[in-house]
Amino acid sequence: MHIPDGFIPLWQCVIYYIVVIIVGYFAVKWAKENLDERKIPLLAVLAAGIFAIQAMNIPIPWGTSGHMVGAAIVAILLGSPFAGFLVLAIVLIIQGIAFGDGGLTTLGVNIFNMGIVGGFVGYYGFKGLKPLISKIPAVFVAAFLSLFISAILCVVELYFAGTFPLATGFYFMGLYHFVIGIVGEGLISTIVFIAINKIRPDLISSGAI
Amino acid sequence: MNISINTIEQESCKNSIIHDLDGRIKLILTFIVIIYAVYTTDLLVLLLMEMYLIALVLLSKISLSYFAKRILMILPFGGFIAIFQPFLKAGAVLYTLPFGLTITYEGVVFGALLLSRLIICLSTVVLLSSVTPLESIVNSMRKLGFPKEIAMILSMTIRYLFLFFDELENIRNAQKSRCFNIWNKKTSYLWRLKQVGYTIMMIFLKSFEKGEFVYFSMLGRGYTGEAVAYNKQSKIVKLDYFIIILTVAIIILIELFHLNGII
């Protein structure tokens, strides 16, 4: 889902950058006001962890593999969509600048898709669904939605950029990410949530319990 | 074909004229070249840019095969979309294939443009990361006015990045020595998935615990939530100015030639 350089025209990249900078401003403000100082090193180390997790292949039925994004589970565990946004922004900046995974001009759009949409859909999806379908299924559905909606947005963005037609994009990206969403993001996030809940429940933010 | 994160870092610590440039200059150059490559729509312009980049690679004494390998490793991500362009764009049909597939002229041109742009941008990023250690890139970002809070998290992240890749490698080796293979069809799919899930969960837990641990050791050294980082002061020297002026001059020249229809 990392859109590379050259696939989005410059003027559209600027729009995504502006959105990311605005959300980034609020995220930093949130971090200063609500995050106690012990969480700052945690965000940093978690970003390094997510980086390694994204390098891990998860087997997907028909012989391919996908990887987890992780915005939703971070947002749920730390109790704020901004946490998901910050961690993913850090990961994507390093991937873009140092490894060429994603791009520099498209850094804005990638942070928008995975950080903002992933974090917010994951967190508010979980918050909204928890009273309806209880905690664990809510983690699953929220994590699935966070990945699936980002993928769909990615198709729409590539369509606006004139790089990929909408219908074909929905078909291929939609189908592929539907499966990755269920297996890679949904199931794995649920396993992580259940395990952390069992072993170190104190690590989960009070909002999520 | 696999180049580990450690190899990349080792390569970036070598010595050459390009390695010695100031991190800020290298970062700015990277942005200039990439923005120009995304802006332009001419294949010949992109070819000239790639030649300039390869000249820089040669100057930096990075082996060309290492350079090419790294680009090839990342290329599939976007190359896939570029390669399918000929079948997707409407336009003058060049060739009709069975199953109603057609190759169009516009599609071929657009696909070639995307692919060339991608190669230029990847070349630039690979060059940057091959001649600049991660830590220097992050410090340069901080010096160029990147928000302080995020720059601090960034510089901590890159410190632990290598640790977590080692951690991941350890887990993989442990699994391999027990004959675990995510593609092994003899074990049930759900079971394999569960194992991967546990691995990821372990990395999560380890990063949580490492995060706490780091916090306590920072606290022990007087951390109060404000980050003060002392960076080695580096001066921008004549060579830095020279390279940046040269690059901008080359880009302007190429663009002028292009506008006047010479290329």
If you had to describe this structure to a student in words, what would you say it looks like?
The complex is a heterodimer of chains A (209) and B (263). Chain A has seven helices and two strands. By secondary structure, chain A is mostly helical. Chain A has one domain: Arp2/3 complex 21 kDa subunit ARPC3 (Orthogonal Bundle), CATH 1.10.1760.20. In chain A, strands 1-2 form a two-stranded antiparallel ribbon. In chain A, a hairpin with a 5-residue loop joins strand 1 and strand 2. In chain A, helix 3 crosses helix 5. The model of chain A has no long low-confidence stretch (mean pLDDT 87). Chain B is mainly α. Chain B folds into two domains: 160 residues, no CATH class; 74 residues, no CATH class. Chain B contains ten helices and two strands. Chain B is flat and about 65 Å long. The two termini of chain B are 36 Å apart. The model of chain B has no long low-confidence stretch (mean pLDDT 84). Chains A and B meet through helix 1, helix 2, strand 1, helix 4 and helix 7 of A and helix 3, helix 5, helix 6, helix 8 and helix 9 of B. Chain A: It is found in: Cell membrane. Chain A: InterPro entries: CbiM/NikMN. Chain A: Pfam families: CbiM (PF01891).
